[in-house]
Design goal:
325 residues, six-stranded mixed beta sheet, elongated, binds alpha-L-arabinofuranose
Length: 325
């Protein structure tokens, strides 16, 4: 019932700092000894999801014998671009990165292509028209995640006659998950005019921002029925704001989030969140497999979609103890 990608499951090094882990001596794809060096430009450490994703990549590199050069961009595109340029200069065998935002990657991706270094997108997409700038994109279908959130809401309020007032905490502005989760959700609830998104603002995928924005929502909107947060962390921050305002999260205000990290699942099991759409961060093992293939020059699928599920409060109680992240 609960489908899942196979996987293993930290770190947050300062921007542009580079660390190595895993075996092998690294070097260019032409080193001849089969060893692979990967430059991985991570978004940051903004959420529980991201911490689990970093750990998955680092552990998987170690297990696969891939030398990993890791950088944390602290949610800034310019830091990611600098990291990618540094990997090009170091002549790594393959570059993988999770783009902070969708736009503005063509120049640096062209530099990697000219240097004959294959690029793998993980987790988030870019909007480059030229898809030859990267070999494959491994990650979730964020539009589908938004749709699943909307479908639960439509079902939950199927008998309601009054308007349903929704507030939305968006992820990082311009990022693929924020754009797509918003679009998928809007598509589903848009079919019934009783669903009204009365406020929608970014919480940058962080707990602190989620709390701050929810406090502002509560001040200006006395009749909020539903919160749709693009990730668990913002939802958890919002729960603090809701409780601070004397309301009961999960009852006075129904909450839907995305990710299904442990803290989110705990809040779901405790009845403070009503529904979570899973987004798996355990991309490391598949990333290492794809990296080995592209370095060897083998064909790989242009898109590898992560398998994911959804959780109700009852389901969260059943699986909580076995969650890996
Ligand atoms: O790109 C995946 C998103 O980024 C996760 O849903 C969110 O928690 C993270 O920060």
């Amino acid at each position: 019932m609960f489908k899942r990608i196979s996987a293993l499951v930290l770190a947050g090094l300062t921007a542009m700092s580079v660390a190595s882990c895993g075996g092998g001596s690294g070097g260019s794809g032409g080193s001849g000894d089969g060893s692979i060096t990967m430059g991985f430009a991570q978004v940051g450490a903004e959420s529980g999801w991201r911490t689990a994703n970093t750990k998955s990549v680092q552990d998987s590199a170690k297990n696969a014998g891939v030398t990993l050069k890791f950088s944390d961009a602290q949610q800034k595109q310019e830091n990611q671009i600098k990291a990618i340029r540094s990997y090009i200069q170091q002549k790594v065998d393959v570059i993988a990165f999770s783009p902070v935002v969708e736009s503005g990657w063509d120049t640096v991706l062209k530099e990697a292509k000219d240097a004959k270094i294959p690029v793998i997108l993980t987790d988030r997409a870019v909007d480059s028209k030229d898809t030859s700038l990267y070999k494959t994109f491994l990650g979730s279908d964020f539009v589908e995640e938004g749709k699943k959130a909307g479908q639960w809401l439509v079902q939950e309020y199927k008998d309601a006659k009054d308007p349903v007032n929704i507030v939305e905490l968006q992820g990082t502005t311009g990022s693929a998950p924020a754009n797509d989760r918003k679009a998928g959700f809007a598509q589903v609830i848009g079919a019934d005019p009783k669903f009204k998104v009365i406020a929608s603002q970014t919480g940058d995928f962080t707990r602190a921002k989620g709390k701050e924005v929810m406090e502002a929502f509560l001040k200006s909107n006395p009749d909020i029925d539903v919160l749709y947060a693009h990730n668990d962390d913002m939802g958890l921050g919002a729960i603090e704001a809701i409780e601070g305002a004397g309301k009961v999260p999960g009852k006075d205000i129904k909450i839907i989030t995305v990710d299904a990290v442990k803290d989110g699942m705990q809040a779901l099991a405790d009845g403070k969140i009503n529904y979570i759409v899973e987004c798996s961060p355990l991309l490391g093992p598949q990333l290492m497999d794809l990296a080995k293939k592209v370095v060897k020059g083998e064909q790989v699928p242009a898109r590898v979609v992560t398998e994911e599920t959804t959780f109700t409060q009852e389901q969260a109680k059943q699986v909580l103890s076995s969650r890996q992240y």
